[in-house]
UniProtKB/TrEMBL annotation:
Domain Acyl-CoA oxidase/dehydrogenase middle residues, every copy: 140-230
The protein's name in its UniProt record: Acyl-CoA dehydrogenase family protein
A Pfam family it matches: Acyl-CoA_dh_1
Acyl-CoA dehydrogenase/oxidase C-terminal domain mapped to chain residues: 243-389
Cofactor(s) annotated in UniProt: FAD
Record organism: Streptomyces pathocidini
Family per similarity comment: Belongs to the acyl-CoA dehydrogenase family.
Keywords: FAD, Flavoprotein, Oxidoreductase, Transit peptide
InterPro entries reported for this sequence: Acyl-CoA_Oxase/DH_mid-dom, Acyl-CoA_Oxase/DH_mid-dom_sf, AcylCo_DH-like_C, AcylCo_DH/oxidase_C, AcylCoA_DH/ox_N, AcylCoA_DH/ox_N_sf, AcylCoA_DH/oxidase_NM_dom_sf, Glutaryl-CoA_DH_mitochondrial
Domain (Acyl-CoA dehydrogenase/oxidase N-terminal) ranges: 23-136
Amino acid sequence: MGVRRGAASFDPGDPLGIDELLSDEELAVRQTVRQWSAERVLPHVADWYERGELPVVRELTRELGALGALGMSLEGYGCAGAGAVQYGLACLELEAADSGIRSLVSVQGSLAMYAIHRFGSEEQKRHWLPRMAAGELIGCFGLTEPDHGSDPAGMRTHAKRDGSDWVLTGRKMWITNGSVAGVAVVWAQTDDGIRGFVVPTDAPGFSAPEIRHKWSLRASITSELVLDEVRLPADAVLPEATGLRGPLSCLSHARYGIVWGAMGAARACFEAALDYAKTREQFGKPIGGFQLTQAKLADMALELHKGILLAHHLGRRLDAGRLRPEQVSFGKLNNVREAIDICRTARTILGANGISLEYPVMRHATNLESVLTYEGTAEMHQLVLGKALTGIDAFR
């Protein structure tokens, strides 16, 4: 079978023609977020990363709210009500700039806002969500603890009744946005099982010391949450969430964004390596003219665009209401793992320049080490798929 006459020329940026699967509205969302990232993040992110801070987090959050990027797949309460593929494309473009920026948006929208939207009372939704959607109020999500990451059922944070009030005590660890959040969704053990609580961060007994000395996600705010007998009214509990179903469904929603986002980091590294290979000369010609380099570029392009196709397929399933958690695990496991490999291969093409912050490669590579771990390690997603394939639970 021959190539169809009049077929479009080969596009190195879209070798499979995936853009043809996207609607005009989806392409417009992608372009808007890509342009914002290019103007507001890329000129500064290397400096933020080197300094280990995100000094304009509140300003960026308000701008992201104005773009409709916060809780963008949620309906009502000031949220954009965008489709799953639109949200995924936004995550891809944000993480192509930096994983920390995508994490800011993911934690705000897919964890904190999603928890309130899915499990909160109408009063809670009206009180919190409009300000969070506008970026006027930053949220965080407290599930992971110092001694309980992959096994959240063992959490020690607890909430006890005191009259009509709740009193929360415990610690949470590795919490994105914690030190700048105005509201925290905190999960705790109660006599009725695990429950979620909406906690104003100015409540007495609540503190969020920032975690320093990170070598990953440096352009992101990561904190510990300390709850020292934080007293909350009865209506602070999320009424529709009991047990692990609540936090795990939030994580599944956030993991979907990671499936797309990881490919953004991979794309940035691939593009940097491709450009470098066409201009860097050794032995009298560009290194892109050598077979070993071309083999690397071909393999990177294969995994990058296969990963984008996978993300697109999962997005269409989510839009159709047919996406299962096991399929999200499939996407997160594959795309983050392949993104890390693409970044590492890109580093070899750039040689010594690959470790310089003048290029994005090492920054993305180190960031992805966090993405590999948070919201389910690779090993946990392997076990999720193993259980789905065999019907046998190997977690314990």
